[in-house]
Structures are given as structure tokens and as C-alpha cells.
Amino acid sequence: MVILSARRETLLRGTAEYLLRNGVAGMSLRPMAAAIGSSARLLIYHFGSKERLLIEAMGVIRQRARAEVEGMLSAAPANRDLSPLLQTFWRWCTATRNRPYLRLLFEVHGLALQNPRQYAGYLEGSILHWIDLLTAGLAPSLGRRGRPTATLIVGTIDGLLMDYLSTGDLRRTSHALDIFAAQLSSKRRKNR
Fold first, then answer.
1. How many CB atoms lie within 10 A of CB 52?
2. Cβ(20)–Cβ(104) under 8 Å?
3. Are 52 and 102 in contact (CB under 8 A)?
4. Is the pTM here over 0.90, yes or no?
5. Long-range pairs for 76-85 at CB < 8 Å and ≥24 separation?
6. Tens-of-pLDDT digits for all 192 residues of the chain?
7. Exposure class string for 98-135: b at 16+ Cβ within 10 A, else e
């Protein structure tokens, strides 16, 4: 059973890397399986369906991103000003190395919106895991307002990232993020 599990994990990591390079548009199991040194039949054996494989591979990719963001949050001071934290997070999101992740994230999200039954569980988890992460990171300084504030941050950043990926205008979207971060920090100072 351990060998089976190790093989499954290897296939999952290979699929995650393949998706980051190629996206999911027109994804076919045979070419993907060949690219990761497997077969379509073996992928179906381990994951049950192409959709289940995609959801699990996105979970692997999300965990990597989450670990980096958790490090960012834990490195920030406990009673932090939100503006520098949001700007640091924005720079991480828009870094060249993270663009494949963001493109894939929005691509799979759109696919899941079109086919919610096939991708059951993906949509809720894709948003809530970021809200939960930020809520935990902001709780020391925001208390009960942590979750609504995290929801606002995730929604705003998602919108700005969609704009940036669509237009390529990093300067304008970064400026909008700076304004949002300053307003959020200003409101927080007033509420103290």
C-alpha cells in the first residue's frame, strides 16, 4: 500500500507541474500521462476521473502557495499595519514566477463555475482557504473583524489580479492596490 501511495503522490506532483506549464484548456489525459511518464489508464486507476485528478493537483499547487503566504504572514509583526502586508502579498502574487499559478487558478475556477457538479468542492475551497489563511493571520490585530476583512481583501485582490492578468497593466493595478491598502489601514486606525 505504501508503494501505491508513493506512486500516486509522484503522479500528483507530476500532474501539478504539467498543469502549471500547460494549463487545462483542451487537457487530455493521454498527452499529460505521457509527459509525466505514466498512462491514462494508470491516472484513472489512481484518481478515478480527469476532474478528480485536476482537483487534487490544484490542491498540491495551492498548498505550495499557502506555505509561502503563511511564511509571509508569520514574518509580519503581530500588531501590523495592513498596508505593507498587502503590498508584500501583491508583489508575491504578481511576481513572474507566480504567473503560471495565477493563470491556472483562474482557468480552473472558470471551468469549475461552468461545471460545478464535475468539480464539486473545488470552488468553495479555492476561495475559503485564502480567507481562512488571512483570517488566522489577521486575528491578532483585527479580532472579530478578521474574517470579514479577509473576505474583502481576497475579493479585492482577486479582482485586481484578474485585471492585471487580462490587461498586463501592473502599474495601474498596483496603484489601485496601494489605494485600497491605504484605505484599509486608515479605517483600521480610526476604529482603534
1. 17
2. yes
3. no
4. no
5. 76/137, 78/140, 78/141, 79/140, 79/141, 80/141, 81/185, 81/188, 82/138, 82/149, 82/181, 82/184, 82/185, 82/188, 83/178, 83/181, 83/182, 83/184, 83/185
6. 455 588 899 999 999 999 999 998 878 899 999 999 999 999 999 999 888 898 899 889 988 888 888 888 777 666 667 788 888 889 999 999 999 999 998 998 888 899 888 776 777 778 888 898 888 877 777 777 888 989 999 999 999 999 999 999 999 999 999 999 999 876 655 555
7. bebbbebbbebbebbeeeeeebeebeeebeebbbebbb
In the numeric block, the cell 496603484 is attached to 175
- Joined grid coordinates for residue 112: 469549475
